[in-house]
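yo, Guanidinium exporter is done. seq:
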Amino acid sequence: MGKPWIFLFIASALEAAWTFSLRKLDLVALKNAAIENSLLSAPVGRELGYLLTYLGLGAANIFFLSLSMKSIPMTIAIATWTSVSLILIKICDIFILKNATNIYEFFFLALIIVGIVGLKYSAPA
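structure:
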């Protein structure tokens, strides 16, 4: 597997992490913490940390995606990036967040995996 594909899978993992960072990000809580506390207080630092994590993951995600798209056609890169991110999010949803799932979801995730493999082997990169 070439570097562009590795960059694409790194971007997908960062996209999944970025998505989960949205669960913690709360700009209203940041504003309220800044109003109620000193800017150097723990509540402000915690909320600011969530914001910086969100921004950092988003920037790193796009950086690695752009590296992969230098060699992989854009349509294949975006389709793969989105699909792998979705699969990683669903895996975390099941195993970390303990959300219920059913056999149909596994079946359709398997179809997505087949599509990713097909795209990978049909791409010129």
